[in-house]
Specification:
The chain is mainly α. It folds into two domains: 22-189, no CATH class; 198-377, I/LWEQ domain. Helices cover 75% and strands 0% of the residues. It is built from 13 helices and no strands. Helix 3 runs antiparallel to helix 5 (114-137). The longest helix has 33 residues, at 198-230. The radius of gyration is 22 Å and the shape is globular.
Length: 395
């Protein structure tokens, strides 16, 4: 690679065959480390019956992971130059992810967010440098880029200041700063819309979903195999393993049953709705592995949860995934039958919590029924008809 820097000019939002780069895939893998740590700690907290605090801590840590990932993804779809400075800045962000991951345990167990905040701020300030570079090069997007840079910087100062808040108001401070982070793109994009490549963003979201689901399978398999090796519950654990595979495969099938590239485009509100609501889809996918670990511990007689509580550790994230994805991506594209079966199926997965000792199997069966219908009836049509330009490109 040449040491000369490439001009950071906007990418063509109509570029054909735009695919994720190897750098983006490498970037995703580092984020999964942090997600894995968070799901493991969530499982431990749930097993010890710290349900409310465990879910709250997971939601907070996952926001830091997801928001930094999403901001890089959306920036990259517009200004990916892939020169040496861009790569180095991205690797700095990856270093921030690893710092954040090292602080996940302290944050979720002791509510000490020092390392998580440091890692998060490293990621976000690296993003600021990218926006400044884009703004200096492009007069058309200078106002937007500088709004991003200033807004992100101000919020990072407030994140550091939050560490000094007493515990009694720390959570309120977190909620306020989440609102501030979410407001930055809304305010920045009013100065001029950055060019978004819908197909590229949809692919990036799909790839991150695949990695999260794969992490769930790996973590679940590790817990189940360990249980089989050490305890005399082979039949129950094998049944759990089979049900886990069906559930995760069902989540995959559901996610990729519709095309999402037209969810990002001309309307800022639609684009942000798609991006923001994916927090719940991604967080649910990451939490499934924690639910499986809780189920394994319950089968082995460890932990203090009841049958229903251990079942809910699986059924709730699966139901949130199903209902969340139906709301964000399927509802406007699907037939009337699918728009009845999908939410009913999500509620049925949740209702399986009430089936003593068999919630995972019930969720798996519900997923099979749901996806059998979805797979045969989804219309998979775009929200708006494609517009053809000269040369046959789609806008």
């Amino acid at each position: 690679m040449s040491l000369a820097l490439r001009p950071m000019v906007p990418r063509d939002p109509n570029e054909e065959h735009r695919a994720a780069s190897s750098l983006e895939l490498f970037f995703d893998l580092v984020f999964v480390v942090a997600v894995s740590f968070a799901s493991v700690e969530l499982a431990h907290l749930l097993e010890e019956d710290h349900i409310a605090s465990g879910i709250g801590a997971y939601a907070m840590v996952f926001f830091a992971i997801w928001w930094a990932w999403m901001n890089f993804t959306w920036f990259a779809t517009s200004f990916d130059t892939d020169d040496w400075l861009y790569r180095v800045t991205t690797i700095v962000q990856m270093a921030g992810v690893l710092i954040l991951a090292s602080g996940v345990s302290d944050a979720m167990i002791d509510y000490d967010f020092t390392l998580v905040t440091i890692g998060y701020v490293v990621m976000r300030l690296a993003m600021v440098s990218q926006w400044i570079r884009a703004g200096l090069r492009n007069s058309e997007f200078r106002g937007t880029a500088m709004r991003y840079a200033v807004g992100i910087t101000v919020v990072q100062v407030l994140w550091v200041a939050r560490l000094a808040l007493p515990d009694s108001v720390a959570v309120l401070g977190f909620v306020a700063l989440v609102a501030a982070e979410l407001a930055v793109p809304v305010l920045a994009e009013r100065a001029g819309r950055t060019p978004l490549h819908g197909e590229h963003i949809a692919e990036r979201y799909g790839l991150f979903t695949l990695i999260l689901l794969g992490e769930s399978l790996l973590a679940s398999a590790t817990a189940i195999v360990g249980g089989i090796d050490e305890h005399d519950h082979t039949v129950e654990l094998v049944g759990l393993a089979m049900a886990t595979l069906v559930v995760v495969a069902g989540m995959w099938w559901l996610y990729f049953s519709v095309s999402q590239e037209d969810s990002v485009g001309a309307r800022l509100g639609r684009s942000l709705s798609f991006g923001y609501t994916h927090y719940f889809v991604f967080a649910a996918a990451g939490a499934v592995s924690a639910g499986i670990e809780v189920a394994v511990a319950h089968i082995e007689g460890d932990g203090v949860l009841s049958d229903r509580q251990s079942s809910a550790a699986i059924t709730i994230p699966v139901a949130v995934f199903v209902l969340g994805f139906w709301m964000v991506a399927m509802r406007r594209r699907s037939s009337r039958l699918v728009n009845i079966v999908t939410p009913v199926g999500g509620v049925a997965v949740l209702a399986a919590t009430a089936v003593p000792g068999s919630a995972v199997v019930s969720a798996a069966v519900t997923a099979v029924i749901l996806l059998a219908v979805v797979g045969t009836t989804v219309a998979d049509r775009p929200l708006t008809p494609p517009v053809r330009r000269s040369g046959g490109r789609r806008r």
